[in-house]
Structures are given as C-alpha cells and as structure tokens.
Amino acid sequence: MPDDQVRVTRILIVDDHEDNVDLLRTRLEAWGYATESAADGDIALKMVEKNPPDLILLDVMMPTIDGTEVARRIKENKSLPFIPIIMQTALDAPEHKVAGLGAGADDYITKPIEFAELGARVKSMLRIKRLQEELELKTSELADANRQLLRVSQTDALTGLANRRHIEQRLNEMFDHSARLGEPLSCVMCDIDKFKIVNDTYGHQAGDAVLRQFAQILKNEAREIDRIGRYGGEEFLLLLSGTVLDAAVTFAERVRKAVEEHTFTFDGGSLKRTASFGVSGWPHPAIMHCETLVKMADDALYVAKETGRNKVVRFASDEFTAHTKSDDGSPADADVTHSAIAQPRWGDRPSGGSDIGAAARA
C-alpha cells in the first residue's frame, strides 16, 4: 500500500476501452491513489493542461490522437511539470516500445497487465517524480541565493544604489555601447556640500539619513535607462544614456534645485543642504575612454566646489578652463585634447595648476 504522501497522488488513465479503465481504476484506488480518466488523446491533453496529474497511464492505440503523439506533446510542453508516463499496449514488438519511449514515455508495460508489475512501476515512476521535484526545488533555491548574492555584491547597503564596482562595470558597458552605435553618453558627478559638518554636528545616523534621502532625490529625477551609483562617501555618479552634454547640464541643474529645496529629516531634527555637480559628455575630442569621461566630470565637480559650491560646472566650459590653468597660464587639459589616453585613473587629481584639492570637497 502507498504511504500517506502517495495516497494523495493523482493518476490519469488514458484508454478508449471502458472495461480497461474500470479495471485499472479499481486496482489503483484500492492502493490508495486518486484516479481520473480520458477516453481519447485529445481529451487527455486538455485535462493535463488544465490540471496536471502526478502520473499518466497511457494506452498506445486510441482514436483521434494515439498515445505516442500524446506523450510527445506532453513532454514538449515546457509549461508542464515533470509527469511520468507509463505506456501500455498489447503490441509487444520492439519497434513499438522504441517509438513510445522515443516520444517521451518514461516506462512501458504490455497487456495483459500484471498488477504486481504495474504497482512496482507506478511506485518507481512516482519516486523518480519526487526526486525530480526535490532537485528542481533545490535548483530554484540555489538560483535565488545566487541572485541575492549578486544583488548584494552590486548594491550599496546604505542607499540601495549601485556600489562603485558595479557602476564602473555599467560605465564600461555603456561607453562601449555608445562608441559602437555613435550615441551620446553623459556623466554627472555630484557631492553633498559640507557633509562632514552633518556628521560632526548631528552624528553619523543623521548623516546616513541625509545620504539615503539624497540618493532618493537622484532616483526620482533620473530616467529608468539612466544608471546611478554611490561612488564613495557623499559622492555619487550618474550615467545618462543617449544624453548630450547640454541636456546633462540641464538635468544636473534640475537635481541641484531639488536638493536645495529639500528638507532633510532625521531622528530629532531636520536640516537643509546643497550639492555641487560636475558634468562631462561624449563625444568630445578630449574624451577617448570611459575613464576620462569620469575624470572630466570629477574635475568639473572640484571646480564647482572651489568656486562656491551649490552649482553645476560643465567640463570644457569657460569657467572650467579658467579654474584649471597650469602654471604657465595654458589650460590644464590642453594635453588631454591631444592624448586623452594619458590621463590618470579615476579620482586622481591633476598634478599642476590650481591644485583642486580635498579641502574643496568639504
């Protein structure tokens, strides 16, 4: 007799001979299985799609659609779970067995049916089904765990934005895409003004609240196709796909105003803050690589900090050039125009000229 778990098992009997169906139903239900029946292949397929059984006893010789075709259609239907199929027929020739098994049947039994053999084959197929379901469950759980690990590895825990590593990966992908298709790509670097004072005056929990709300403002203003990441500390990077430099400056100005108008709240108080923005865009003769795109936005951000904060500075603008002069009075980025590949990596500061320094970021 089947155990308690098997007692709820549903078996579909597909046979056009009513006597055969009655005989199989009587024996299977005596063993504790629930049974349903279909008199032809077309009805069986509809029943399986509507409510998949746990196992199918399938006669080969039937009207409308024979058992071999029914088995093939069931096994090809990717929306169905794994359903063991035991083919039953009076045709004992090897070619008939090969045809049935080739169509997707999992086992074969010949008529007249020996019920001891049938019981053993049913139990065997149901055991395989349980193992298959357990394997699918574990595979699904493993896939979910891997997705969760991937999400954690790509996300900044405080703000929920992409972390630096992930936003840099997206930058490489987006720059390559833009270069390949000739589409514009703009980069915005932004930084909360005088953020250190927030932590020093109100504590790090208040600072964390400000960062989270600032990140939410960025998400509210950005489009779905844009990418946002926390670049480090209170500095954030936005990548604007298909956006020319002028439009990126307009976007940054809109975000700047949103930050300026926002009241940041935290447990025990509230405060106002502003932010500074640096904007760069490709294509530009001074920008040949994605690293340079970010560096130019970062340099423009430092100019914004150095010239008063709470403003947007555009790379290669008159203001940018005036505040990035080298010692001899020439633009500090003059060499970049001819050889952008020689530029330092992200975050490196220009070695000469205005010495845009860490103090400007405070």
Largest sheet, in brief, is: 5 strands, parallel
Main sheet strand line-up: 2-1-3-4-5
Find the structural class using helix and strand composition.
alpha/beta
Taking pLDDT < 50 over at least 5 consecutive residues as the criterion, the unreliable ranges are 1-6, 327-361
Task: Record keyword descriptors for this entry.
13 helices, single chain, elongated, 362 residues, disordered C terminus, disordered N terminus
How would you describe this protein?
With 362 residues, the protein is α/β, with parallel strands linked by helices. Helices cover 48% and strands 18% of the residues. It has 13 helices and 12 strands. The strands form 3 sheets. A 5-stranded parallel sheet has the order 2-1-3-4-5, with helices on both faces. A 5-stranded mixed sheet has the order 7-8-6-11-12, sandwiched between helices. A two-stranded antiparallel sheet has the order 9-10. The radius of gyration is 34 Å and the shape is elongated. It starts with a helix and ends in a 24-residue tail after the last helix.
Task: Describe the secondary structure blueprint for this structure.
Elements: H1 4-7, E1 10-14, H2 18-30, E2 34-38, H3 41-50, E3 55-59, H4 67-76, E4 85-89, H5 94-102, E5 107-110, H6 115-154, H7 164-181, E6 185-192, H8 195-202, H9 204-221, E7 227-232, E8 235-241, H10 245-261, E9 263-266, E10 269-272, E11 275-282, H11 290-306, E12 312-314, H12 318-322, H13 334-338
Parallel strand pairs: 1-2, 1-3, 3-4, 4-5, 11-12
Antiparallel strand pairs: 6-8, 6-11, 7-8, 9-10
Helix pairs in contact: 3-4, 4-5, 8-9, 9-10
